[in-house]
Amino acid sequence: MPGLVPDAVFFDHLANRRFVAGNFIRRPDQLDYLQEPDVFHDVFGHVPLLADPVYADYMQAYGEGGLRSLRFGALHKLARLYWYTVEFGLIEEAGELRLFGAGIVSSHGESRFALDDPSPNRIAFDLLRVMRTNYRIDDYQQSYFVIPSFEALLKATVETDFAPVYAALEGLEDVAADAVLPQDRLFTRGTQAYARDRR
Ligand SMILES: [Fe+2]
What we know:
CATH topology: Phenylalanine Hydroxylase
CATH superfamily: Aromatic amino acid hydroxylase
Strand content: 5-15%
Number of strands: 5
Bound molecules: fe (ii) ion
Number of helices: 10
Order of helices and strands: HHHHEEHHEHEHHEH
């Protein structure tokens, strides 16, 4: 997440095809989860995908969109798109779900959880849905969104005029991190047992 560098600086780097990485590394007791992005998260989780040209275009488009979102006061809505794709995204490939979000990839525990645990929802990606949905920063996600391909993700981002999206979002309520909506296309309806047990 943007967080350790100011948002506008982070987006400007992305828009210019640069990626900033943390300069510290987690402690042994933080192996599975920490909130701040350390160098392991950034270099192991994010950097490999930047070599994929389509994904790199998405990151650039996100940076450009991020700069625009600041003018709309809509950063927290757009941040959900980053969270549920770049950090915690799943992708359907060869009929299977796979990980690509760096926040999952850099956590052994969440890697297993996101793919195999019955607890979280796994929901087909929909731009507006994602941008309405709250997320957890303190624990594993309660819902994951599944993209069909990086091409589809890039297309949904660059072909969308976000001004009307932000306007539409004004009239829509936020969706809880564990919620399932009637219009959702579900891969898995989660039991949410993990989140319940952790309370
Ligand atoms: Fe990250």
